[in-house]
């Protein structure tokens, strides 16, 4: 600002200086030239009269340093010159002023010296005898005058420079002071010169705009944070250079890191090769998926590229916990495989027997045995399908009526039905306890007790015992089935409630089970909000205890 | 100028982390191949080793370029020179994981179950590599110290493996070759532990400027 003001002041000062110099010099110079010319003419007329009067004597007596008088004859020869020897001078007939004087009686001219520093003015007049008298005077040119004035001009310029410098800094300070002290936070409350008002108005408007945009941004940011913080899925935002922009708490937990990872490369958080490659893929192709195992949990990771106006600006990583889903999927796959296998085995057996009979390979006396075989296998199929149907019903959780059921009564009914099988293996079955009434589903309770007792008998040794006890412990109605059977090895205990799971796969045919019994028990107990406890040791027996916790009002002790 | 240098340093860090991740994977897959007796997995270790070797060349070139063009001093110089040393150790880890994989193919599906400590060794060495790479990524001297301390565990385990293999040979002289293969594997794990210690020490050097030896 100071510089600009200084410059303009200097330009103005310079222009004024030059202009005044030119004008003054021009006017004065012309005035003085005119005066000099007049004087020259006056002197000449005096000299002409004197020469006509006195002739050569006047010229010889004349002692003038300033003026030079030359008397030239009509033919141009110099008769006399006051400053040099007349005879030695060249012919003057071709001089402009002489010719003019010869022609018009008077002539004038001026000639510059070769250096332009001097100017000689000539004035000539024809005398009565035809000769010409010329007077000349030397004067300095305008340039010499100007040159002579350089020193004072320079002094003026220097003074102007200093003055304009001081003035410029003073003015700019004066202009800038109110600007510097503007309170831009409250633009309208400033008291400055009115030229600034439009600017301040605009600043005020923009202030309001910025405030609005800021609060809008803040609101959006809050929304985003609220949404992502509550998510159970891990969410990470990356920019195009793989730097973490945002990460939610679930992802922090998953990748074992802290908030300090923001602004760092994602590699510093997770350097798993598959994940890095998936991120690269996503940047190239737009989307990629991968799976990752972390502390026994399985995560599905989706990565999507983010684009804006056709250029890639980052990627978003979403990590789902699919442990349960993966487990369920595995279970379903196993179940399908098992069902097909279990269904196929008896059918294969039936087909085999039927083919033998069809081809007449069966002797008539064996026929009964074969038909019996087909019947048993078909019976197995029916049992299996029955079990599957029961299970799927439990899976679908179709509504079953809750009613007041006496556990003891149900148990004794079921055990009556099992008496024959127990007798076949010479197993002593006892029921202890008393009436315990619960609000429950009678059919499911029967199913549970039947399957438990059935297993207790099936996997028992000959002459063993099965004890069923119905009791009430605090708020719980408890069914306990204890046998003296083969027991379940510890490594299998966690899995026996899975569908088709067999401890001893080779013996399944022999014992005739479907592998679905305990699975049905588990689902039924779940449906009735009960709890299963298993205590078992190999070769000593198993005790399975089912307890239903109920409100005091529902348990009626009669 | 400086910002470009910073960018290049960031690339160097990124590549080093990737190389470290590959080393982790190589040794993890190698120990999985051993415990599962899965010969198919060994191919993966070998291909990882190839990738690690290529990576070493890339990082080496980058480091030399940085040294020449930027003439770094102080911390930057330490970082780059430490990187140059670390990639050598990482490359050795990769190669030794490949060696282990190669020996596993000779075992014929046996898993070294006779000598439990060898699995502990595999786990411990694997964890050491992870810790030292973690220390690098986080520039964490405490983690580096943990990795260095764990080396004693691996060394102890190696002695235990040795004595139990001696017992194995004494009991079943026919298994002599198998026992020797296991010993080689154990030795490689022990060496991998040493390389992990080296990496951890270089991390400490690049952070503090002091190299313990």
From TrEMBL, chain A:
One of its GO terms (biological process) is cellular response to phosphate starvation. SMART domains: HATPase_c (SM00387), HisKA (SM00388). The chain crosses the membrane at residues 9-32, 142-168. One of its GO terms (cellular component) is plasma membrane. Keywords: Kinase, Membrane, Phosphoprotein, Transferase, Transmembrane, Transmembrane helix, Two-component regulatory system. It catalyses: ATP + protein L-histidine = ADP + protein N-phospho-L-histidine. Its EC number is 2.7.13.3. InterPro entries: BphY/WalK/GraS-like, HATPase_C_sf, HATPase_dom, His_kinase_dom, HisK_dim/P_dom, HisK_dim/P_sf, Sig_transdc_His_kin-like_C. Signal peptide: none annotated. Its main location: membrane. One of its GO terms (molecular function) is phosphoprotein phosphatase activity. It is found in: Membrane. Residues 338-552 form the Histidine kinase domain. This is histidine kinase.
TrEMBL record, chain B:
InterPro entries: PhoU, PhoU-like_sf, PhoU_dom. Residues 16-104, 119-203 form the PhoU domain. Its main location: cytoplasm. It holds the Pfam family PhoU. Keywords: Cytoplasm, Phosphate transport, Transport. It is found in: Cytoplasm. Gene3D superfamilies: Phosphate transport system protein phou homolog 2, domain 2. It comes from the Bacteria. GO terms for cellular component: cytoplasm. The keyword Metal-binding does not apply. GO terms for biological process: intracellular phosphate ion homeostasis; negative regulation of phosphate metabolic process; phosphate ion transport. Homodimer. Plays a role in the regulation of phosphate uptake. PANTHER family: PHOSPHATE-SPECIFIC TRANSPORT SYSTEM ACCESSORY PROTEIN PHOU. Belongs to the PhoU family. This is Phosphate-specific transport system accessory protein PhoU. It comes from Parablautia intestinalis. The lineage of its organism: Bacteria, Bacillati, Bacillota, Clostridia, Lachnospirales. The gene is phoU.
